[in-house]
């Protein structure tokens, strides 16, 4: 920046002196400026040559040197301004954010609570040694690797594994440092000093991975050698053919590749600015230009393709109690719970519009369950062994255990007055926009998409199948994620997307690391090249499209500028242009290509569909209706499974309730969608209109609901007979399956307009 200022002042001062006709002062000022910039540029070129790099700046060195030798000082000063301006712009474009991993270090504990007999003494973390017994209090980060020596540890290990579900670790079991105590205090016998612990290892991995990344090679230099050879050859021919060194100098002046030096950084800065307007932080021009060429995508699971916010997906009941009552009792107790699943259960109660009562005489056993009195009844919520320790292993319980194992869901049991009443099944749902975004990324040039997670393979494969990824890497610790990065980089330039501290090493090592920053994963943001501040995967698609368009405009500017320079070089070789006129002409070419480069600031058409206000509000309303209907959809399969165990009159009442829900809530909702939302969506999406298949699904839903209504209408007053159950089950299971799929399809579509 100092050189640029000096060059501009020198050019302006020389011009003023020239107009004032103050002797040769103007020439001396221009020559001085040219000489200073020449020395700086020459030293930079020499350093590059020693590293085996040939840059386009070498042409500028030859042009400035020639201008000084031949007395064309004004031309030399103009070249100096162009060169220093390009260098300053380029430095700004490629500067990377290299802050310390402050969040990672701040999260790391600085003190530990060492047990010394009956006393607990706070000691510096570096003074913890092998064999120490430490007390880990609620909310604290486990300071060192060890074994639980007293109590039960309930740990949130999402920072290490990405898994959102708290982990229970019993006495005598090993514990890794870095997890957060989500339960009661426990004692830990240290098996590794803090410097050798898991958490410290993650910090070292991030630093080592960042140091191993190759520096960004500027776009201009990729074409430097060929352009340099052509320029020198043409200048030599002009000198020989015209017997004039001035012609050779003019060739060098008009060849000074400022379009290469200026246009590419200008376009890339424009692309970075445009990304920033959409809440996307790109740490310099290098990552943006590299992202445009990426062909492999590696995704973390929890918090990246899933929401990391558990939701109740089904409510199973035992006996005659309704699912609404199970949710009401469970949510009433969970109002005073600190368990991570409490918000999900309360949200389910709100979606069902059930009225909660405030519990009394509440006692919570951290990580196991909570009990209390609700409306005079004793209610317990939590693990099966806590809520109903003597409950027999019935086929229904075995079915639930199998389902949770296969689907990767979690179960929260509910007992009322000591009897098992029901179970709530919770899952971390896939982001609605994720499948659509991944399909669009494939269309944009990503050839391979993989997913990596610390989850069990069965759970990971289910998510991978739903997303259509090419390969799933399951049960991978942070250091193993780094190995996965090394493996997939062999397939092409690799983008890694993650959101947690456990992803930071892989984000740092990948060609491009992208952090989902909305959840406060500061360590991941520090290690990443791109940070999506909005908690939506659409930001990845938008960034990729911005990067690709930016690189295309940069290349256009480079090649248009080179082409125009080549034409000017031919005229210069023929003696039609003087050195000063050549410098001015080159400046005009610079302005032209930079104006073209700045097109990267504009939209250039909708990179992601504009969310028109009318459609956005409608989509949000319909998505809200889905959330209120979803509990009823979950009840369909639950009712089908227990029809034969219900008293006949109770079964009839439940079936009639479902029929009324279809007629009063579900079918009006489907009609509203088809009459209001689908036409608008079809008009906006045009040739990509997906509403045709959705309309066919509506027809099938109406057919099944009509069939169900007739089956219920034909039931005898005393309730369904044995021969009625088969058809009722078939229709209920069919409606559950088609509505679950249909809601997922519509929510993916509505996610286009909600954000």
Automatic annotation (TrEMBL):
InterPro entries: ATPase_P-typ_cyto_dom_N, ATPase_P-typ_P_site, ATPase_P-typ_TM_dom_sf, ATPase_P-typ_transduc_dom_A_sf, ATPase_P-type_domA, Cation_Transport_ATPase_IB, HAD-like_sf, HAD_sf
GO cellular component, one term: plasma membrane
Similarity-based family: Belongs to the cation transport ATPase (P-type) (TC 3.A.3) family. Type IB subfamily.
Compartments (UniProt record): Cell membrane; Membrane
EC number: 7.2.2.12
Transmembrane segments: 29-50, 55-71, 223-242, 248-272, 553-574
Classification via Pfam families: E1-E2_ATPase (PF00122), Hemerythrin (PF01814), Hydrolase (PF00702)
PROSITE patterns: ATPASE_E1_E2
Domain Hemerythrin-like: 622-750
Keywords tagged on the record: ATP-binding, Cell membrane, Membrane, Metal-binding, Nucleotide-binding, Translocase, Transmembrane, Transmembrane helix
Protein name: P-type Zn(2+) transporter
GO molecular function: ATP binding; ATP hydrolysis activity; cadmium ion transmembrane transporter activity; metal ion binding; P-type zinc transporter activity
